[in-house]
Amino acid sequence: MIDIDDIVTMKEIDKEDMLGFLERFPEQCEEAMTIAKKVNLTAFSNKPALIVILGMGGSGISGDITRVLLEDELSIPIYVNKDYKLPKFADKNTLFLAVSYSGNTEETLSGFDQAVSLGATVVSITSGGGLAKRAKEKNLPLVIIPKDIQPRAALGYLLIPVLVALEKFGLIEDKTTEIEETIASLKQARENLSPGSSSDENRAKQLAERLIGKIPIIYGSGGITGIAALRWKCQFNENGKVPAFYNVFPELNHNETVGWELLEDITERFFLIMLRDDQDHSQVKKRINITNSLIQDHFDGVFEVRTKGKSMLERIFSIIYLGDFTSVYLAVIEGIDPSPVERISVLKKRLAEE
User: Fold this and answer.
1) Beta bridge partners of 138
2) Model confidence pLDDT, tens digit, residues 4-21
3) Which residues form the domain of 251?
4) Which residues lie across from 179 on neighbouring strands?
5) Are 195 and 19 in contact (CB under 8 A)?
6) Which residue from 146, 167, 172, 353 has the fewest beta carbons nearer than 10 Å?
7) Are 318 and 209 found together in one domain?
8) Band of the pLDDT at 145, cuts 50, 70, 90?
9) What integer pLDDT is reported at residue 352 of this predicted model?
10) Using CA atoms, how far apart are residues 268 and 280, in angstroms rounded to an integer?
11) Is 50 helix (H, G, I), strand (E, B) or coil?
12) 279-328 pLDDT tens trace
C-alpha cells in the first residue's frame, strides 16, 4: 500500500494529474461561468414547453444535477435523455441542451440530429468533436470548453454553462451569486481535501483508507444527496476501479433494506456511506436513522457525510468534492493511476469496428 501522505509517490502514480484537476476545480468553475456568459444566446420567441438535456456518463451527470437543482424552480418539465432515441413527447417546442465533453458521444450525437430534425433549438456544450462541428454547420448556439481533461473531472465546465444558458433564456433566475458562493466554499474545502493535507485531518484520505478492499454502498435521499450518491458511485467505478452501488431513500426502504438480512460472509465486504442533507424531508430523516440501526451491523463500517452551505448548488458540491477526492485517493493507495478508463476505450473501439 502507498503512504497516502507521500506526495512525491502519489504524483508518480497519478500520471495524468487527476488530483491536480481536483485541486483546480474551484478555478474551473470560475472559468466555466466566464465562458458561458460570453456566449450569445437568443431567447425563445415563445417559452419552451419542455427542457431535454442530452448527455452520458461524466457529461450526463450535469443534466442529472441540473434537474434536481431546478425542479422546484422551473415551471416546465426537465428531462435527462440517456439513450439513442428521443422521447416521443419532445418536439419543436422543446429546448435541448446537448452536453458531451469530447463531442463524440454517439448517443448524444444521435439525440442532437433528431432534435435538429424536429426544428427545435439545441444548445451544445462541448470541447469540440462532432458535436461542435454539427452545431457550427447548423448555426446553433455553441459553448466551447477547454480540452484535454477527463470528462468526469470537468463537471464545472459541463454544469455551469447549462445553468447560465437556462438563465439567458429567461427560464430561471440568475445563479451568479450561488455559483460564486459555491466556488468560495470549494476553495475552503480544498484546504482540507488536497494532497498536502495530512491524513490526520483529511476526511477524503481517511475514508479512502477505510475503503481498501471493500465495496462502497452509497445511500442518499430523493433530492440532492441522491444525485450525489450516483456521482460517488460513478467516481468509485472510474477513478477507484472498484464496483460500487447506490440507492435512495425512501424507495430503498421498500426493497433493499430487506436484502441485507442474509449472506453475512459477503456483506461484511461492503462499506456503507450515508449522504445526508439537513433539508431532507422529516420522514426521510427518520427513515435514515431507523434504517441505519437495522442494517449497520451487516457492513464492515458506516461513514456519514453531511452537506454544507446555503444554496442547493453549494450543498451538493460540498459532498461531490469529498467523493471525488476519496475515489482518487482510493486508487492511488493501491498504486493505480486513476485517470485511464481502458475498458471504456476498448468498448468504444469494438463498437467502431463492428
Assistant:
1) none
2) 899 999 899 999 999 999
3) 198-333
4) none
5) yes
6) 353
7) yes
8) very high
9) 80
10) 29
11) strand
12) 999 999 999 999 999 999 999 999 999 999 999 999 999 999 999 999 99
Of 107, 214, 233, 238, the active-site residue reads: 238
Strand order in the sheet with 50-54: 78-81, 50-54, 94-100, 121-126, 142-144
Listed in sequence order, the DSSP H helices in the chain are: 7-13, 18-23, 25-38, 57-70, 106-118, 129-137, 155-168, 176-193, 203-210, 224-238, 264-267, 282-295, 312-333, 342-353
Q: Which residues contact 333 (CB under 8 A, 6 or more apart)?
A: 1, 2, 4, 208, 209, 212
Residue reference for cell 463524440 = 104
Q: What is the pLDDT of residue 2?
A: 86
CATH of the domain at 25: 3.40.50.10490
Residue 238 among the catalytic residues:
yes
Residue 325 grid cell: 477526492
Please tell me whether residues 169 and 289 are part of one structural domain.
no
Cis peptide before 250, with omega less than 30 degrees from 0?
Answer: yes
Put simply, whether the predicted model's pTM sits higher than 0.85 gets the answer: yes
- Name which of 130, 60, 131, 54 is nearest 95 in CA terms: 54
Strands 94-100 and 78-81: unpaired
- C-alpha grid cell for residue 27? 478555478
Catalytic-role residue among 254, 342, 353, 354: 254
Cell digits of residue 331: 486508487
E strand or H helix that includes residue 79 = strand 78-81
How many angstroms separate the CA atoms of 251 and 26, rounded?
34
Can you read off the three cell numbers belonging to residue 57?
A: 456518463
Q: Pairing state of beta strands 142-144 and 94-100? A: unpaired
- Asked whether residue 352 is assigned to any structural domain, the reply reads no
Residue 263 CA to its chain's centroid (Å): 32
Q: Can you read off the three cell numbers belonging to residue 16?
A: 495524468
Structural domain contains residue 91: yes
**Checking DSSP bridges between strand 301-306 and strand 270-276, what pairing results, if any?**
parallel
Classify each residue of 320-335 as buried b or exposed e, where b means 16 or more C-beta atoms within 10 Å of its C-beta: bbbbbbbbbbbbbbbe
